[in-house]
Amino acid sequence: MNASFSRTLFQELPIVGILRGFTMGQMTEIVRAALRGGLRNIEITMNTPDAARQLREAVIVAEGRLNIGAGTVINLELLDQALAAGASFIVTPTVEPKVITECANQKIPVFPGALSPTEIVRAGELGAMMVKVFPAETVGPGYIRALKAPLPHIKLLPTGGVDLKTLPDFLRAGADGFGIGSPLFDRQRVESCDWTWVEAQCRAFAEAYRQAC
Questions:
Q1: I need a surface site. Which of 35, 51, 164, 210 has the fewest CB within 10 A?
Q2: CB within 8 A of 86, min separation 6: which ones?
Q3: How far is CA 33 from the centre of its chain?
């Protein structure tokens, strides 16, 4: 049974920290550091080894203080695994109609990946809570601004290319949230067990968002 999604937590800080390919031990320490640093949402990708077990453990460690979701959900089988493991939200890399529709039917927040205006509108029509604009580094904040002009009703979550320098630009362009991976969870820092750095990065991104609002 999936854990409940807290819109309050998400709205406090609409940054989704993305974990891909970390070990169970690393994931646990990252979640603890993220909690100390004030993060509110973490996504564990389903192409991570032992992803379902990691999701279950992350939910336990978070103790309701983080929304724990599953990413790279590309079919219904992975969706079932993610929800059974406790994921409270779902992220896809592309517009996957079956996954999006099933999430909408179950009232599970889903953030499908899309890039073109047609894909973005389609994802919204299928029931996306927000649309992950991916890869955002190829288009930049100007693209978000251009999309928002005709599509102000669709919430956009740029992912890829969002760092401490670019986050304020994306926010001013109309972004409603952000997906952030390596700028938060640098692999070299994680492998050297520098949890103080991870905590500090989470705090820095939280502060950058609040200052830019």
A1: 210
A2: 1, 2, 3, 55, 56, 58, 59, 68
A3: 17
Indicate whether this model's pTM tops 0.70: yes
- DSSP code of residue 201: H
pLDDT, tens digit, 9 for 90 and up, residues 125-163:
999 999 999 999 999 999 999 999 999 999 999 999 999
3 CB neighbour count, 10 Å cutoff: 21
Given 96, 102, 132, 199, which residue is catalytic? 132
Tokens representing residue 121 in the block: 């509108």
Helix, strand, coil share of the chain (percent; to 5) = 50, 15, 35
Region of residue 65 (left: phi > 0; alpha: psi -120 to 50; beta: else)? alpha
Q: Which of 43, 57, 102, 199 is catalytic?
A: 43
Instruction: Give yes or no: 148 in active site.
Output: no
With a CB cutoff of 8 Å and minimum separation 6, the contacts of 103 are 79, 90, 109, 110, 127
Coil, helix or strand at residue 152: coil
* 132 a catalytic residue: yes
Task: Judge whether 45 and 71 are in contact, CB under 8 Å.
Answer: yes
